Amino acid sequence: xxxxxxxxxxxxxxxxxxxxxxxxxxxxxRVSMAANGEELNKFLQSSEIDLIVLDILMPGEGGLDxxxxxxxxxxxxxxxxxxxVDDTDVIVGLEMGADDYVTKPFNPRELLARIKNxxxxxxSLPRQFSKIESGYIxxxxxxxxxxxxxxxxxxNGDEISLSTVEFKLLMTFLKHPKVVLSRDQLLDMTxxxxxxxxxxxxxxxxxRLRKKIENDPKRPxxxxxxxxxxxxxxxxxxxx
Length: 240
What we know:
Layout: E1 6-10, H1 14-26, E2 30-34, H2 37-46, E3 51-55, H3 63-73, E4 78-82, H4 88-96, E5 100-103, H5 108-123, E6 136-139, E7 142-145, E8 150-153, E9 159-161, H6 164-175, H7 183-191, H8 201-213, E10 223-226, E11 230-233, E12 237-239
Parallel strand pairs: 1-2, 1-3, 3-4, 4-5
Antiparallel strand pairs: 6-7, 6-12, 7-8, 8-9, 10-11
């Protein structure tokens, strides 16, 4: 039985999907192809897919709508293909849950590197929830309204708004409670980029998040620093 990762390439242009599929197969991936959302649906119903390479601009159901639909029920990594110069759709796609993107025309080696990176990242951590794009997640005496991106403490507590980065960071911790997350992993999962040795932005964002959820940010109870490791959410989470 072939256990190599199964990639689904979704693009309405045959001249793109077939050479890309051939290239990925030469690099030891199992590859299936779909020209639209309808064909994608059939593969999702009949096959185990490890990652989807998804074109944004397609006739009928577009890539962003497909990405949103996938995220409502599946936890499959998605890399977007975009020919758009405007970054707006890319940003929207990432906010919908896409894991990365590549701009057309692209170097297949670059896409291959991004596929390896996304698979490495997603396979290195346990997936806690198959659906986490709506509803509520509770931890300790806090409840996060995922749809509105606001926190509430207890029953009568005031609502606290979160910035986009704070929300992504908190969601990452909530998806992986009691798991030590390195700075590299946190940077990768919240901003889709690799860190460098001097990048301290995650430390700053963790500090800001602590100020919102900790009784004493200097002595945190929920987001602990693991020396030499990174950070860890120390409490269980419950999705409702």
